[in-house]
Amino acid sequence: MVQITEFRVVMPLSLEEYRVAQMYMVAKMQQYNTTGKEGVEVLENRPFEDLQLGKGMYTRKVYHLQSKIPGWLASFTPPNALLLEEEAWNDFPNCKAVLKCPYFPRFKLTVDTVHVADRGFSSNVHKLDDASLAIRKVEMVDIGSDATDYWSYMIGGPSVDLRTLISKKTGRGLLSAGWQDTCTPVMTAYKLVTVDAPYWGFGYQLEQAILGAERALFLESHKHCFAWIDEWSELSVEDVRQLELETDEKLKEAFREQAKTLNGHNKKIAC
User: Fold this and answer.
1) Residue 129 pLDDT class (50, 70, 90 cuts)
2) What is the pTM of this model?
3) Distance CA 245, CA 133 (A)
4) CB 59 within 8 A of CB 96
5) What is Dmax (Cα atoms) for the chain?
6) What is the pLDDT of residue 135?
7) Which of 56, 132, 175, 257 is most buried, by the most CB atoms less than 10 A from its CB?
8) Which of 51-65, 107-121, 169-183, 252-266 has the lowest mean pLDDT?
9) Contact 224/160 with Cβ under 8 angstroms?
10) Could you report the per-residue pLDDT of 63-73, keeping only the tens digit for each?
11) Would strands 3-11 and 136-141 be described as parallel, antiparallel, or unpaired?
12) Domain 3-270: which CATH class?
C-alpha cells in the first residue's frame, strides 16, 4: 500500500539563505559519510531544462548503504540490498527526487519538496487531490529536538545540539521550545514522501523503515544546515556550486581508489 507523509521542517532562515545552506550541507554531509566502500557516488551533476520540471540542476547518484541495512532485512537479503539509485531535479524553491532499488525493482520512493516563507501551516502546498489528501499524514520536524533513534545513529554526521548553539556571525540560536513561533527570518521545507514497496509479507515493514530513515535524515541534515551557518553565511550560490563540483570529484576519487584496491585483491586471488 502506498504511504504518503508530508514532513514539515521549519528553519530560522530566509529562502535565499536556505538555498545556500542546503547546498553546502549536502556537499559536506556526503563527504563526511563517504569512505569509498560506502557512501554517495555522484554520477551526474549538470543543468537541466524541462517543460514540466522547470529549470535548475539535475543530479544522478548511487547510495551505497551496506552497513545501514536493518537486521530484519539483512536476514534474507544480500549486503547490497540497500544500494539506492537517485535522480533529482532541483528547481529551487521546488525540488523532486526519485529513488529506486535495483534489488527491489517494484520499490519506488519519491520526495517532492516545496520551500515556502512561512511557519509550516500551509495546508496543501503540493496541490494534492482529494484521494491523496485522505491518506496523507503530516509530521512536524523540530530541528531543536534532541530526539534520536536507530535511524538518527545510522544517518551519521557530527553530533549537534541547537538548544545551546549561537551563531557568532548572525547572533541566531538557542532554539529552545517554541522557537518556531517567534524566530525571524523563517521558512519551511515541505517534504512530501511517497513510498511504495508492493511486496507481500514485508512490504509494509520496509515502507515504515524507509519513512523512519527519511524522518531522521530530514532532522539530522537540517540541524546541520543551521549548525554550520557561520561556515556558509558569507558564501554565494556560485561559491557553493564550486564546492559541489570539488566534492563530487573527491567522492568519485574515493570510489575509484576502492575499485583499484578490489581489482588488485582479485588479481592476487586469481594467482
Assistant:
1) very high
2) 0.85
3) 39
4) no
5) 68
6) 94
7) 175
8) 252-266
9) yes
10) 876 655 656 56
11) parallel
12) alpha beta
**Cα torsion through 203, 205, 211, 214, rounded to 10:** -100
Arithmetic mean of pLDDT, 168-183: 89
User: What is the edge-to-edge ordering of all strands in the sheet holding 94-101?
Assistant: 39-50, 54-64, 83-91, 94-101, 104-116, 187-196, 3-11, 136-141
Q: What's the CA gap between 185 and 188, in Å, rounded?
A: 11
Cell of 182: 517567534
End-to-end CA distance of the chain: 51
Residue 158 identity (one-letter amino acid):
P
DSSP letters, the chain, are --EEEEEEEEESS-HHHHHHHHHHHHHHHHHHT--SSSEEEEEEEEEEEETTTEEEEEEEEEEE-GGGS-HHHHTTS-GGGGEEEEEEEEETTEEEEEEEETTEEEEEEEEEEEEESSSS--S-TT---HHHHHHEEEEEE-TT-----HHHHHH------TTS-B-TTT--B---TTGGGT-SS-EEEEEEEEEE---TTTHHHHHHHHHHHHHHHHHHHHHHHHHTHHHHTT--HHHHHHHHHHHHHHHHHHHHHHHHHHHHHHHHHH-
For residue 38, is pLDDT > 80?
Answer: no
pLDDT at 73: 61
Q: Does residue 31 contact residue 163 with C-beta atoms inside 8 Å?
A: no
Cα gap 140→198, rounded to integer Å: 27
CA distance 10 to 181: 10
Residue 18: what residue type? Y
Q: Which residue's entry shows cell 523563517?
A: 186
212: cell is 523512519
Cα distance between residue 229 and residue 269, in whole Å: 49
